[in-house]
Design goal:
The complex is a heterodimer.
Chain A: E1 34-45, E2 48-59, E3 63-67, H1 74-81, E4 89-94, E5 97-98, H2 103-112, E6 113-116, H3 128-138, H4 144-157, H5 173-185, E7 191-195, H6 203-218, E8 222-226, H7 230-236, E9 239-244, E10 247-252, H8 254-259, H9 264-273
Parallel strand pairs in A: 3-8, 3-9, 6-7, 7-8
Antiparallel strand pairs in A: 1-2, 1-4, 4-5, 9-10
Chain B: H1 10-22, H2 29-61, H3 90-123, H4 128-141, H5 146-157, E1 169-170, E2 174-177, E3 180-183, E4 185-188, H6 192-220, H7 226-244, H8 251-264, H9 268-292, H10 304-326, H11 328-349, E5 358-361, E6 365-368, E7 371-374, E8 379-381, H12 383-409, H13 413-421, H14 426-456, H15 468-479, H16 482-511
Antiparallel strand pairs in B: 1-2, 2-3, 3-8, 4-5, 6-7
Helix pairs in contact in B: 3-4, 3-12, 3-15, 4-12, 5-12, 6-7, 8-11, 9-10, 12-14, 13-14, 14-16, 15-16
Classes of the chains: A alpha/beta, B mainly alpha.
Chain lengths: 274, 516
């Protein structure tokens, strides 16, 4: 639900973004609004500190890729942003709404923020079409016909309209993940969170999902992506954030990050993965 | 296989033929399979025939009567409760027992399910105390034998105060004593069946309303609550029906005419009809079966197992035909039963126009000699019923609770997270995502619990509740027809269990997840 209808809707499913639209460091987003603000966010699981005073600001239309070794807190952080995990200290403000124990705030944030999971988490008892229309019909109270029309347009956009009547169990992993992206987009979110979207996929299916994500990034969506796909990070990201031990170690543009890392831990990490 | 159009070439077919020619019979898998099937069939049928004839000889030699004549003969039995406490025939007594068993099982299934869901959810609660209480309930009740629980509840209930002419707690409205609980009773009166017709029409209209409201919801997205509207429609018809139901008294004539037609039909009609149905159904099944196993090129590939099924189906239908032709008694029984049924329905409609569909009575207490007792006016739950009811409900709820807990835990956490992430509320997540998936896991084992509950009601003999086993015991003690009564018991429980199984399986198939 965009408050300003005259503003170009970046999520218009039929408007294909030009492939050469500027992203990455070529863009200047300094004038853009802050949509996610984290201030000293900390979280513990028992004695283990998963997040240690994480502070970061993400601007509208910015594509941020979060990197780091496993157990570094990337997923925990991204899951805190739509309250699937509850942070214990600090502040998280999403689109001017602070995440507190207020159920109304949580629901508002969740309907503005789309999320894509590592394990897809499609609803196996519903068809692909019903998976995509479920939230628009029951949360946005859209007429079914309108919701289905929108869902078909989204499925078209992620390249699998012919699968609409099938069930998730009948699709390949890559197709399922693309449906999951369409499901998230159906709520017309302002922000998309990706939690290792390609980690559970066979190598030949990774590309089809990354392609959809690239198109989405070019269309101006604000994205926060936890991934190990360095190619995607180099090509699409405006900024890389490197985490370790629940802390943000370093953040920079992709060029600077890969060619000239400042921190020792970043250098070690890069030497291990590149 | 070796048709000229066969593109696979002749070389492999020749090799195949050469190989199969060399296999001796005792090593040929196909031959062995068929021999085993036929041998097994002969052995089973032979054993059955042998046992039956031996049993018949022995029974005759010992003068044990296996006639079912007691069903029509008068008996002197007084039952504790039921539709007829002084049945005039053995059949009527058994029927009363069956109705008591069915009442107990149905009420038990409903309440055990409701309680089981509560217990299962309690064990998953975020609240420590609720969770512990749930565990305590489950661990205690499922680990004490059902019979012990039954006797325990019965002995507790007998400590209730003795019934007097003015016992309360609300004299004339609610009585609680060691004779049970008695409260006002609403019962079906003469006008009920005419009223039922109005309600059935209401149900049809309600179905239409439900569809319409659903469609409006789909088109506009507005909250149309179709279920509420449908129920409201039926309720409205029910209320209106209280006043207009005599308008349907003419239906009695229609049913009477059907009964007359059935009476006049010659025996050959049901014979032809049933033979036709048996042959027709089997023939369509076989044709479909063959069509389903035919490849696109028209090649029929049936396994030996498939062949056996086809032959068995054909043989079964021929057996039905033989039975219908040779045993004319069966056809006349079908006709007569049909006629009787429609005559009974006709009688239900043949009432005074002003008759009310429902009536109500307050519970009463009557003095018989020195002992006051509940009369027949009120709705009375006897101690026996209560003891068995609470025992089976509590006992089964523990098991159903575990099924519910397991079913909900079986839904991956990611489902809830994904549903929350697209903005559904907690209630919507449960209703639209978690429960539909949990239900698939919960249903099959819960169906088993329903079967167990129904069969467990036979333990009620321990507290003297007049269910089918208790009544049957009294009947064979009086008539000496032990085997026939036991046969009736077995048939009764078997049909109950099969009915439940069919219903549960039907749901199960409908709910199955589609994969691949």
């Amino acid at each position: 639900m965009t408050e300003n209808p005259t503003e170009a809707n970046p999520l218009d499913p039929v408007a294909d973004a030009p492939a050469d639209a500027p992203t990455g460091a070529a863009r200047d987003l300094s004038g853009a609004r802050d949509v996610i603000v984290c201030e000293d966010v900390s979280k513990w699981y028992g004695d283990f500190q998963a997040l240690d005073r994480v502070s970061a600001t993400i601007r509208e239309q910015e594509v941020v890729v979060v990197l780091g070794p496993s157990g570094s807190g990337k997923s925990t952080w991204i899951r805190c942003i739509n309250r699937l995990e509850i942070h214990q200290e600090g502040r998280i403000v999403v689109d001017d709404v602070e995440l507190t124990n207020d159920l109304r705030n949580i629901e508002k944030v969740r309907s503005e923020v789309g999320m894509v999971f590592q394990q897809f988490n499609l609803f196996p008892h519903l068809t692909i079409l019903d998976n995509v229309t479920l939230a628009p019909i029951w949360v946005r109270k859209k007429p079914r016909a309108e919701a289905e029309e929108q869902a078909m347009a989204l499925l078209e956009r992620v390249g699998i309209p012919e699968q609409a009547a099938k069930y998730p169990g009948q699709l390949s992993g890559g197709q399922q993940q693309r449906v999951a992206i369409a499901r998230a987009l159906a709520m017309e979110p302002r922000i998309m969170l990706f939690d290792e979207p390609t980690s559970a996929l066979d190598p030949e299916m990774i590309k089809e999902v990354l392609d959809v994500m690239k198109t989405l990034a070019h269309s101006g969506m604000t994205m926060m992506v936890v991934t190990h796909e360095m190619g995607f990070a180099k090509e699409v990201a405006d900024r890389l954030i490197f985490m370790e031990g629940g802390q943000i170690v370093e953040q920079n543009t992709p060029e600077a990050f890969f060619s000239n890392p400042t921190e020792e831990r970043t250098k070690l990490f890069l030497s291990q993965i590149l | 296989m070796t048709s000229p159009t066969d593109t696979s070439g002749t070389q492999p077919s020749d090799t195949h033929a050469a190989v199969s020619a060399r296999v001796p019979l005792w090593r040929d898998v196909v031959v062995l399979k068929w021999v085993t099937q036929v041998f097994l069939l002969v052995v089973v049928l032979g054993a059955m025939w042998f046992l039956a004839s031996q049993a018949g000889d022995n029974l005759r030699a010992r003068n044990i009567n296996t006639e079912f004549d007691f069903i029509e003969r008068p008996v002197d039995i007084q039952l504790g409760e039921g539709i007829d406490t002084h049945p005039d025939t053995g059949g009527r007594a058994l029927w009363t027992g069956m109705v008591n068993t069915l009442r107990l099982s149905l009420a038990g299934i409903i309440f055990a399910t409701a309680l089981g869901v509560v217990v299962g959810l309690a064990r998953l609660s975020d609240n420590w105390l609720v969770r512990q209480l749930g565990s305590l309930w489950v661990e205690t009740l499922r680990n004490i034998p059902l019979l012990v629980q039954m006797v325990f509840y019965f002995s507790i209930l007998t400590t209730l105060p003795r019934v007097g002419l003015d016992t309360g707690p609300i004299n004339g409205w609610l009585h609680i004593s060691n004779k049970g609980i008695s409260m006002p009773r609403v019962f079906i009166a003469d006008g009920f069946y005419q009223w039922l017709v109005v309600v059935l029409i209401g149900a049809a209209v309600g179905r239409y309303v439900h569809r319409r409201r659903s469609r409006i919801h789909d088109e506009t997205g507005a909250d149309t609550s179709p279920v509420l509207w449908a129920l409201g429609t039926v309720a409205a018809f029910g209320v209106v029906g209280l006043f207009v139901h005599p308008a349907f008294s003419w239906l009695g004539g229609v049913f009477g005419a059907v009964a007359g037609v059935l009476d006049a039909l010659p025996l050959v009609v049901p014979q032809i009809l049933l033979c036709g149905v048996a042959l027709g159904v089997t023939a369509t099944w076989i044709l479909r079966f063959l069509a389903a196993h035919r490849s696109a090129r028209g090649h029929l590939s049936l396994t030996d197992d498939d062949w056996f099924r086809v032959l068995f189906a054909a043989a079964a239908s021929l057996a039905v035909v033989y039975l219908m032709v040779r045993w004319t008694g069966l056809s006349s029984w079908i006709l007569n039963s049909g006629r009787d049924l429609f005559e009974v329905i006709e009688a239900k409609f043949d009432v005074d126009g002003a008759a009310r569909p429902f009536d109500a009575m307050r519970p009463d207490i009557v003095q018989k000699g020195k002992f006051p007792n509940y009369g027949t006016n009120g709705l009375t739950m006897t101690l026996g019923f209560a003891a068995v009811f609470f025992a089976v409900v509590f006992y089964t709820s523990a098991f159903i609770g575990e099924n519910v807990r397991g079913g909900i835990l079986a839904v991956p956490k990611g489902q809830t997270e994904a549903a929350l992430a697209v903005g559904l509320t907690r209630g919507q997540v449960l209703r639209r995502v978690v429960l539909p998936q949990a239900f698939r896991v919960i249903l099959p084992p819960t169906g088993n619990q329903y079967l167990n509950l129904t069969k467990n009601t036979s333990l009620a003999v321990a507290v003297g509740f007049s269910e089918i086993v208790q009544v049957g015991t009294t009947v064979f003690n009086q008539t000496g027809r032990t085997l026939p009564v036991v046969a009736i018991w077995m048939l009764f429980y078997l049909s109950c269990s099969l009915t439940i199984s069919v219903i549960v399986n039907w749901f199960n198939v409908r709910m199955k997840l589609v994969e691949r």
